[in-house]
What does this fold into?
Amino acid sequence: MTKNQGKEFEEQLKQSAIDQCIYIYRIKDVPPLMLKPNTKVSKNDFDSFIYKKPNLFPVELKSTKNKSVQFNEKIIKKHQITALDNASKYDGIIAGFIFNFREHNNETYFVHIQDFIKLKYHAENQIKEHIYKSKLNRSSISLDNCREIGVQLHNRKKQVKYTYYVNKLLDELIERYGDK
It folds into this structure.
């Protein structure tokens, strides 16, 4: 049985963080088949917590073979956006999405939740007067949008798997978003 490519990305990112002595905690999903009928389980607010002194990074990871990630509720859930937004309001917390475009040179970007919300608002409401250089699509965030508003998570391919430079990303995020 082949592994879901999104799960592969999550595992490679986690291993990269561990190899760089960065604390990362993956919040486990509860498989629906493991539950008794009619059992209710709260939804995870996001995928992982990453910690590098003095900041905590709640992140939702998204991997796609496409050149954009849909705003569709099946892919980016409203409760995830709300939870990341709420988390970002606390001192020392830098929250956002990490978007991985695996079929496009494996480009990967962290997009701060506030930047994501602003872009999504402008795109969905088709606001013509916006600050973005890249084209806005009403229903998705594109690789070009991520290049413009995100911070790149550099990586290199070993033989089969990727190594992500998590430490470098966190340093850049702390410099950009820390103490706000």
User: Anything to note?
Assistant: The chain has a mean pLDDT of 91. Strands lie at 23-26, 48-52, 55-64, 68-70, 96-101, 107-112, 140-142, 151-152, 155-157, 162-164.
